[in-house]
Amino acid sequence: MAKNKVSLRRKHILGLEDFSREEIELVLETAKEMKSIIHRDIKKVPALRGKSIVTVFYEPSTRTRSSFETAGKYLGADVVNITAGTSSIVKGESLRDTLLTVEAMGFDAIVMRHKQEGAAEYATKVVKHPVIVNAGDGAHAHPSQGLLNLFTLLQYKGRLEGLKVAILGDILHSRVARSDIWGMRRMGIEVHLAGPGTMLPRFLAEEPGIFVHERVEDAIRDADAINVLRIQLERQKAGLFPSKREYARLYGINNARLALAKKDVLILHPGPMNKGLEISPEVAYGDHSAIQEQVQNGVAVRMALLALVLMGGKAQ
Ligand code: NCD
Asked: Residue 14: inside a domain, yes or no?
């Protein structure tokens, strides 16, 4: 961090609801510096040398877990991973006991994902020393994903204020949508939501700067970016949409629909994708797609978050 005038006004990263604009800007600026480290030949800086981080994941993950691990390692920290399938969690150990165990080992940060909303906040009440970083709690929040989406938008569009972004699909079950909405609104982005009525929390339409549409076409018209969400098949009760085929036909993003948005529209998707369902392969791998870039930005943003919570953000 070159000009570390502001610092995060929190110990833990639980969600973006109460992040100020200045705090978000601080994370994005720090992430920009971190991204340059990823492009170096030797990607290791000593910023977090001597610090130890544990990731505790009760839900599957490819990108989030490995990018937190990579982020910690690029900054010189020691990183250990605990995943539900290969730990005492399968023997029935409670979340509380797992947290107390890792605290006793001296970890400075616990990056955790859990299917229960509020699990990360609960963790802050269980442990005393470690910082808690929420990597997804049920359908509640996924702050690092919300921040990496903002970082990617800023990279491509050069600004955030005044952008029009459509968020499509399973808003109800999506922690990504929630963190996106909080972060985007704080940064002055106009948010347009669309998806099947059963997956669309209508009360959001009462919030300033948020527009809820029945038809995808209305949400993406003139959009600067479209954030396509994964249908959360594992969180759904049956019957929220008639069939996968119909979903793809009514709500899927394909080249024909893309033509309604701005010419330079950016396509975001947090991954993993259900290709052919919410997004067609030609869009996922097409010229407008920033999906791969999001993955790299995920490492940079997580480096920034870890550096900020563990030592105030200085990379070198
Ligand atoms: C998201 C998640 O786990 O919430 N994925 C991710 O972190 N890259 C989105 C999803 O699973 O649909």
From this structure: no
- Quote the ligand 1 centre to 90 CA distance (angstroms): 23
Residue 2 binned pLDDT confidence (cut-offs 50, 70, 90)? very low
**Judgement on whether residues 251 and 229 belong to the same structural domain of the protein:** yes
Residues 99 and 164 in one domain: no
Q: What is the pLDDT of residue 1?
A: 44
CA 117 – ligand 1 centroid, Å: 14
Q: b/e per residue, 269-283, with b = 16+ CB within 10 A?
A: bbbebbbebbbbeeb
Active site residues: 63-64, 91, 113, 142
**CATH number for the domain harbouring residue 124:** 3.40.50.1370
pLDDT digits (tens, 9 = 90+) for 60-79: 899 999 999 999 999 999 99
Contact residues of ligand 1, CB 6 A cut-off: 63-64, 136, 142, 145, 175-176, 230, 270-271
Three-class secondary structure of residue 93 per DSSP: coil
pLDDT for the residue 85:
81
| Ligand 1 atom with least separation from CA of 135 | 7
Ligand 1 mutation target, pool 145, 171, 227, 302, most atoms within 8 A of CB: 145
Examine the domain organization and report whether 182 and 286 are in the same domain: yes
Domain coverage including residue 123 = 21-142+295-310
- Six token digits for residue 167: 């968020």
Query: Which is it for the CA torsion 22, 28, 32, 33, positive or negative?
Result: positive
pTM: 0.95
Atom index in ligand 1 nearest the CA of residue 142 equals: 4
Please name which of 235, 239, 180, 241 lies closest in space to residue 216, comparing C-alpha atoms.
241
Ligand 1 geometric centre to CA of 64 (Å) = 8
**Torsion sign (Cα): 135, 16, 141, 99:** positive
Q: Please write the tens of the pLDDT for every residue from 100-123.
A: 999 999 999 999 999 999 999 999
- Residue 223's CB is within 10 A of a number of other CB atoms, namely 22
Residue nearest to atom 7 of ligand 1 (CA): 64
